[in-house]
Design goal:
Cytochrome Bc1 Complex, Chain D, domain 2; Methanol Dehydrogenase, Chain A; 3 domains; 5-stranded antiparallel sheet; 4-stranded antiparallel sheet; 7 helices; 33 strands; globular; binds heme D
């Protein structure tokens, strides 16, 4: 009976896929097409979910993959299949994804170039905004529910314009330094450049099959795109997104790596590239884009670091590793502190749990600077003294958090409780007493997450992560609600001034 079910599904789906000619297990392939292809792509090249090809799974043991298929994966949209599939089917799927496809997928310069679309060439649109607002106090809100973005006036909190984005954006959109343009990256590799003054997408290009994020050089010349698939960093012209170079991510000894993320480091005038499968960090000075350029610096590490926090000067990076699969490190050392100039390790980070450094924030505390990070597997915010890299205090929260935010002008730091039964709650802490001030639960039962401040720090905007969701505006001092703006799963929001001035309270 089961075999018949697979055969029917194989007949429906397998024809025309790259795997069908390869002698791969047809039944497993049919299962894959039925349950996995919608998110992971018919040819396993990725989509909303990661690519499921052997080279992408190099750090995930098959046992861990089986667990993910059965139990789902926290932090992602991967559901649990154990209720729908029996053990043999789960096993067959786990085996299938470790089989190489019939054809090696690639996405080189020619593919990238062929996908390039320029909707409005440089100079063809006016330089005066077509709406009135404080251009430094605008927000872009990414609405994941229906793949749109909203341009929001940060004074009136009225939407100015709502437009469709590519499917499944991920990572923060990045502004040009004057705030006129914003660049979006989608999980399946599309990079879009949007002209805020004219409310138009001006150019698009597919830079990878499975992309992590994009960074824009502070001199507004380059966009760097980090890919999981292929293992490459792609450099585009920030003018019209035309491709300049594809840099294979290798260690020089025959091993290649996915890019965890690429960051721009304005004071260093360089891109910093975090690698997932090679224990190295790369630094690529703006403009030195050839991979063998002697100015490309490789910092060799003791272990893989793929989640980063930079100090405000970009001289030091704190890095943490996300263990593969559902494994959680029990090690006392959960990260490292690296000096970017010397390449030397300054300290081990002894944070219990799994810090989410990428969403960390920093502020002055007495005669030192501290950084705070939520933890992805425990209800704790770790506050670390950035002079001696010791944990100064661990604040208890009602569950693991994902995003943290503050503003120079605000006495408070906000952290969500992203996972678990209390995911509808958000904690507000005092940055000097390091004590809890208030816990908000704006919509019981719905996830409340991701805060961003207005330019002056007077208001904090919080998302209700639901298709029938909202952005809620709070007075950042009294913590009273000011306004509720309906939106479709507004995942993140990004204030032009705070982002382009690298505010210490926001992610970079
Ligand atoms: Fe993200 C940013 C990695 C899952 C929403 N996420 C980032 C960045 C990295 C990262 C490296 C910084 C890039 C940037 O902003 O340029 N995210 C990862 C993962 O490795 C992880 C755990 C697994 C994965 O599937 O990729 C992951 N992320 C998620 C989600 O499941 C979230 C909650 C929903 C979604 O969009 O898929 C999610 N990530 C976000 C958001 C940002 C982000 C909203 C931007 C943060 C900010 O600056 O505000």
């Amino acid at each position: 009976m089961k075999a018949l079910k697979y055969c029917i599904a194989a007949g429906l789906f397998a024809l025309g896929t790259a795997n069908s000619a390869s002698g791969l297990d047809k039944a497993a392939e049919a299962l894959y097409q039925r349950h996995c292809a919608a998110c992971h792509g018919a040819q396993r090249l990725g989509g909303i979910g990661p690519a499921l090809l052997p080279q992408n799974l190099s750090r995930l043991r098959k046992k861990a993959a089986l667990e993910v298929i059965g139990q789902g994966r926290p932090l992602t949209q991967m559901p649990a299949f154990s209720g729908q599939l029996d053990d043999a089917e789960l096993d067959a799927l786990a085996d299938f994804i470790y089989q190489p496809p019939a054809e090696e997928p690639n996405w080189g310069l020619a593919d990238i170039r062929a996908s390039h679309v320029v909707h409005h060439p440089k100079g063809s649109l006016g330089d005066k905004p077509v709406f009135e607002a404080d251009l430094q106090n605008l927000f872009i809100v990414v609405e994941q529910g229906d793949h749109h973005a909203t341009l929001l006036d940060g004074d009136s909190f009225e939407p100015i314009y709502r437009f469709q984005t590519r499917y499944a954006l991920h990572g923060g959109p990045k502004y040009s330094s004057d705030g006129r343009y914003v660049f979006f990256a989608s999980r399946d590799g599309w990079i879009s450049k949007f002209d805020i003054y004219n409310l138009k997408v001006v150019a698009e290009i597919r830079a990878g099959i499975n992309t992590r994020n994009a960074a824009v050089s502070f001199n507004n010349k380059y966009v760097a795109v980090g890919n999981y698939l292929p293992h490459s960093l792609v450099l585009l012209s920030a003018d019209d997104l035309s491709p300049l170079a594809v840099l294979p991510m290798t260690d020089g000894a025959g091993n290649s790596s996915r890019v965890s993320a690429v960051y721009t480091a304005p004071p260093r005038e360089s891109f910093i590239v975090a690698l997932k499968d090679i224990p190295q960090i790369l630094e690529i000075p703006y403009g030195h884009i050839a991979p063998d350029n002697p100015r490309v610096k490789r910092i060799k590490l003791e272990d893989y670091l793929d989640d980063f926090f930079f100090n405000q000067e970009y001289s030091v990076v704190m890095g943490a590793s996300r263990p593969a699969g559902s494994e959680v490190s029990e090690s006392a050392v959960s990260g490292r502190v690296i000096d970017l100039d010397s390449g030397r390790k300054l300290a081990d980070l002894a944070i219990p749990g799994m810090p989410h450094l990428g969403s960390g924030i920093s502020w002055r505390y007495g005669d030192t600077t501290v950084m705070a990070t939520p933890n992805l597997n425990s209800g704790a915010v770790s506050i670390i003294d950035m002079q001696d890299w010791q944990v100064l205090k661990t604040l208890e929260t009602e569950g693991p958090g994902f995003f943290m935010r503050s503003h120079d002008q605000s006495p408070y730091a906000w952290v969500d409780v992203f996972f678990g039964p209390n995911r509808d709650k958000v904690h507000v802490f005092d940055k000097q007493s390091l004590e809890l001030v208030k816990t908000l639960a704006p919509v019981p039962g719905k996830t409340a997450a991701h805060v961003e401040f207005t330019r002056d720090g007077r208001y904090a905007l919080l998302s209700i992560w639901d298709v029938d969701g909202a952005v809620i505006v709070y007075d950042a001092q009294s913590l009273e609600e000011v306004k509720r703006i309906p939106m479709s799963k507004p995942s993140g929001k990004y204030n032009v001034y705070n982002k382009t001035h690298y505010e210490a309270g926001t992610s970079h």
